[in-house]
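Obj: model holo form, ligand = 1,3-dihydroxyacetonephosphate.
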Amino acid sequence: MPTAAVMTPRQLYERLKNVRAGSLVCQYSLKKCEELVPLINEINALKKEKGAVILVHSYVSPEMVYGVADFVGDSYKLSRDAIKTSAGTIVFVAVRFMGETAKILNPGKEVLVTADDPGCTLADAITAQDVRRLRKEFPGYAFVCYVNTTAEVKAECDVCVTSANVYQIVEKYPSDKIYFLPDKFMGMNLKNEMQRRHVNKDIRYFSGTCYVHEEYTGEQIFKVRSEYPDVKIVCHPECNAEVVANADFVGGTEQMLEYMRKATAKRFLMLTECGLSARLQSEFPDKELVGSCTMCKYMKSNTLESILRVLKAPQERERVRIDEKVRVRALKCLEEMFKYAEPSPSRKAACE
Ligand code: 13P
Ligand code: SF4
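Output (holo structure tokens):
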């Protein structure tokens, strides 16, 4: 999504006018866009001057997605985009573990993170020391880590996965004993999906959760289905097993977007972070989203102001630095992911 050199308030408004953030009363007016555009143009000019590229996860607020992003997507797509870029500086508008992934793949580049609070309840759930302990407890198991982990944790694991490829990688991975970390819901969903595919693997998993996705329940789905019998329910694999079992489609955020693009249905319930819902409202104005979404406070701590500040003068905590020995081992874990992921990530439902 390359950005024009200078954006007008009207251009921004055309992208944001259909966004209903959180509820029907919260939306972008032309006046709001007039306030945002000077900041957007300042960021884009500075980005050019500094030879930087801006990578934006779909969960951040849409003025960043449509105003300053060179690349937008999920964690798998953004990790591929981070390899493609020739820019000397990568500005990651997301959370720290995504910036770390970019740094593992681009050790010679400056990687900056712009969130005021770049945490993630999954990445913060487990340490490298935990993994070393678990390896002793579960000898003979292949350790599979979700991309929502620190570089230190990746360095202790055999293969990394994202929400876009977790099922196909674990299915293909040449080990019938799998320890999955850190998400317990994704671990349960993985176990159920392998059974559904008649893949006989012993799957254990850690106890972490995403505080955004763990909020969704089967009861919410049943309520929405009874109100809107034609609704398609789309969820992220970080949701619990009851939600996943009752959804029409399960996948990473980019796959959710592709599902909606191709679906003939008109009404959807999206069980994920509100930033994706905002993208969907902007890009598919003829489709209706019902129900509500949930916000990730970490992703939402990225703002146009924080991007400008970091581009101008990054503080030490905003520069991603990884010990070289750790980086090399974490890189192996990511390279294993690229080896087992399909060359062009499958858009097929992970759990249709
Ligand atoms: P995606 O890779 O599907 O975008 O997920 C990242 C994430 O943090 C989900 O909560
Ligand atoms: Fe982490 Fe959940 Fe936020 Fe994604 S939505 S970054 S998993 S806390």
